[in-house]
Amino acid sequence: MAGGAVTGALVMKLGSTVSYPRGGVFAAGQLGQPWLFAAAVAAGVLTTTAVPIALKSLRRRTAPAASTARAATGTKQAVAAGRA
Predict the structure, then answer these.
(1) Are 28 and 34 in contact, with CB atoms under 8 Å apart?
(2) What integer pLDDT is reported at residue 31 of this predicted model?
(3) Distance (Å, rounded) from C-alpha 47 to C-alpha 75?
């Protein structure tokens, strides 16, 4: 959703026009300022790629904390006793 929002905002800001908004690839010849449109789409793709990568890197940083807490308690029996 973030990538689509970035693409839409840039298309509006850069002034690229589309005569047939539902034409898909067949309306490519009807684009006003096609290079700016392509740049907006590329920025949206980069945003779509960057958001999950950033979120996954945050998860990797927090996930090992749980395993280090188990190691600090000692044996598996101590961990099981703590959960019971």
Answers:
(1) yes
(2) 86
(3) 44
Whether the Cβ atoms of residue 60 and residue 34 lie closer than 8 Å to each other: no
Q: Which two tokens stand for residue 72?
A: 């600090």
Q: pTM for the complete prediction?
A: 0.62
Terminal-residue alpha carbon distance, the chain: 42
How far apart are alpha carbons 10 and 39 in whole angstroms? 9
- Lowest average pLDDT, out of 17-21, 32-36, 58-62, goes to 58-62
Token reading at 12: 């509006």
In order of 36, 64, 66, 77, 79, the CA distances from 72 in angstroms are 55, 12, 10, 13, 10
